[in-house]
């Protein structure tokens, strides 16, 4: 099952492609076999260019890439679901009607004990009791992978991982070590990591957060119940923020699925350990068994949604209301042009 689109180019042109994951529940691994892609924007914000062979795009994320084709040949744009259950594809070609080979789907990834770590009580965990039945019902496209709540990215020394080409980095630090979901490029080349992203021009002055709020991503696959800190949206109090503060959010994924977390109205500053160069996003993907941090400059008064962007998860309770108190009469902070405020609504 696939969808197909054709895009015509002139050989030698530099082509900018914007990928938008508008699905309800599916992560995609995107590549253009035979072409290197240069990532230049993430979620509408410019980043320092990163050359990659493949990247994973979560629900509601966007990536802009630049490619250059010098030959008069067609190339396949291949977006393979993370669970390998299907794909979407397009064609870049110098003239209409040309096609290129469509890759075969790769084998579906299998979750490991590392992916299940946050889902269990380690003190009582009996590995012999982990039957295949206990792992049933997992949706590999939005993929469930337990949590390793002790994995703290802020202490992982991202700044010492080497250059933005990431060639010396054997594993993606935004996945649990040994995770079955650890991405690898089909050609053995470079797969984009959040750790590669650096803001091109920081939007906000870097400063210490005023406080930290922990959000445990919780749920039950068998009952298909999803929540934050074990409480569904309808039973939860709003999260109250004060206009002008900088808040640090700590996501601890205690489920076996990857959750794309989306804050409306304000940008999410993803902590990759690069200080003022940390990238701005509006969706932060949190893999099973990981802890991920983001910070927010609270610059938009009012009430805002904060939720997992997997549609069924949001609908079943992984959702919070954010209330921003205080602020000027206008919706723009003094001294800040309107173009700098907030993220997607």
From TrEMBL:
InterPro entries: Cu-oxidase_2nd, Cu-oxidase_C, Cu-oxidase_fam, Cu_oxidase_CS, Cu_oxidase_Cu_BS, Cupredoxin, CuRO_3_CopA. Residues 7-80, 207-325 form the Plastocyanin-like domain. It comes from the Bacteria. One of its GO terms (molecular function) is oxidoreductase activity. The keyword Cytoplasm does not apply. Keywords: Copper, Metal-binding, Oxidoreductase. Coiled coil: none annotated. The keyword Oxidoreductase applies. Gene3D superfamilies: Cupredoxins - blue copper proteins. PANTHER family: FI03373P-RELATED (PTHR11709:SF394), MULTI-COPPER OXIDASE (PTHR11709). This is CopA family copper resistance protein. It comes from Marinobacter manganoxydans MnI7-9.
């Amino acid at each position: 099952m696939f969808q197909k689109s054709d895009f015509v180019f002139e050989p030698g042109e530099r082509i900018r492609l914007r990928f938008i994951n508008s699905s309800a529940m599916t992560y995609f691994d995107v590549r253009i076999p035979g072409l290197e892609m240069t990532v230049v924007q993430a979620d509408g914000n410019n980043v320092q260019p990163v050359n990659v062979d493949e990247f994973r795009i979560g629900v509601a994320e966007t990536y802009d890439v630049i490619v250059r084709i010098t030959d008069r040949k067609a190339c396949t744009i291949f977006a393979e679901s993370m669970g390998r259950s299907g794909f979407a594809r397009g064609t870049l070609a110098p003239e209409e009607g040309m096609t290129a080979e469509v890759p075969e789907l790769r084998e579906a990834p299998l979750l490991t004990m590392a992916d299940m770590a946050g889902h269990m009580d380690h003190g009582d965990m009996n590995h012999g009791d982990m039957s295949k039945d206990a792992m049933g019902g997992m949706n590999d496209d939005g993929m469930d992978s337990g949590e390793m709540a002790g994995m703290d990215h802020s202490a992982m020394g991202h700044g010492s991982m080497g250059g933005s080409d990431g060639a010396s980095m054997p594993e993606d630090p935004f996945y649990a070590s040994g995770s079955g979901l650890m991405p690898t490029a089909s050609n053995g080349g470079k797969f984009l990591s959040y750790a590669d992203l650096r803001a091109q021009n920081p939007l906000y002055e870097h400063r210490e957060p005023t406080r930290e709020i922990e959000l445990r991503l919780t749920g039950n696959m068998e009952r298909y119940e999803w929540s934050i800190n074990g409480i569904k949206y309808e039973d939860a109090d709003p999260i109250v923020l004060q206009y002008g503060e900088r808040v640090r959010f700590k996501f601890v994924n205690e489920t076996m699925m990857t959750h794309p977390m989306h804050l409306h109205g304000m940008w999410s500053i993803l902590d990759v350990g690069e200080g003022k160069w940390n990238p701005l996003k509006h969706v932060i993907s949190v893999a099973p068994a990981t802890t991920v941090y983001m910070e927010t400059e609270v610059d938009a008064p009012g009430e805002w949604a904060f939720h997992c962007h997997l549609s069924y998860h949001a609908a079943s309770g992984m959702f919070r209301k954010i209330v921003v108190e205080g602020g000027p009469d206008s919706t723009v902070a003094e001294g800040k042009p309107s173009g700098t405020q907030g993220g997607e609504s």
